[in-house]
Amino acid sequence: MIPGPANVTKTTLAPGMSIAQGVFFEMFLTCELVFTVLMLAAEKSKDTFIAPIGIGLALFVAEIAGVYYTGASLNPARSFGPCVASASFEGYHWIYWLVLTRLFSLHLILMVGSQDRSVHGCSAQCRLLPLRQGYEL
Fold first, then answer.
1. Residues 24/97, Cβ–Cβ less than 8 Å
2. Contact of 48 with 40, CB cutoff 8 Å
3. Which of the pair, 70 or 123, is modelled with greater confidence?
4. How far apart are CA 84 and CA 6, in angstroms?
5. Higher confidence at residue 113 or residue 50?
6. HSE-up of 109 (CA within 13 Å, CB side)?
7. Has residue 28 got a pLDDT over 70?
8. Per-residue pLDDT, 71
9. What is the set of domains in the chain, with CATH numbers?
10. Which of 1, 96, 120, 132 is deepest in the core (most CB within 10 A)?
11. DSSP readout, 44-109?
12. What is the pLDDT of residue 58?
């Protein structure tokens, strides 16, 4: 697909950047992109047609800011594909997966927890019940 070795496309941490710094930097960049998508495109309005421009600019800023330090993955597939192609995974490859899975878990908890179930007399533990068993109260 590309001339040369496949390992040049891998996302790696910059020299001198610790794993903890990489996790928090990737978290910041991913949160910036997710926040932009939620604010511009999640709710339909008359201004939604301009959302792709704002999302593209947010992605551009995140990539420019993070490409040197962490490779600016922002997407686990962006990190996984080159590692599979080169048949080598770094010891810290998990940091590119951690941020997205935690954001998804937080979204599910907030989505389920924000529904008003006080009319059913449910406790806080009951709010997670429909998510686990797949039905709605």
1. no
2. yes
3. 70
4. 9
5. 50
6. 8
7. yes
8. 86
9. 9-111 (1.20.1080.10)
10. 96
11. --TTGGGHHHHHHHHHHHHHHHHTTTT----SHHHHHHHHHHHT---TTTTHHHHHHHHHHHHHHH
12. 93
- Residues in the chain, how many? 137
How many angstroms separate the Cα of 45 from the Cα of each of 50, 51, 58? Answer: 10, 10, 20
Helix (H, G, I), strand (E, B) or coil at 133: helix
Tokens at 39, concatenated = 């604010």
Which residues contact residue 38 at a Cβ distance below 8 angstroms, ignoring those fewer than 6 apart?
A: none
- Mean pLDDT for 37-44 is 81
Tokens 């950047």 locate to 17
**How far apart, in whole angstroms, are the C-alpha atoms of residue 102 and residue 40?**
22
pLDDT at residue 107, as a whole number: 67
Structure tokens at 37: 């998508």
pLDDT tens by residue, 85-114: 888 888 888 888 776 677 677 766 666 655
Whether residue 30 contacts residue 74, with contact meaning beta carbons closer than 8 Å, is answered with: yes
Q: How far apart are CA 133 and CA 112, in angstroms?
A: 13
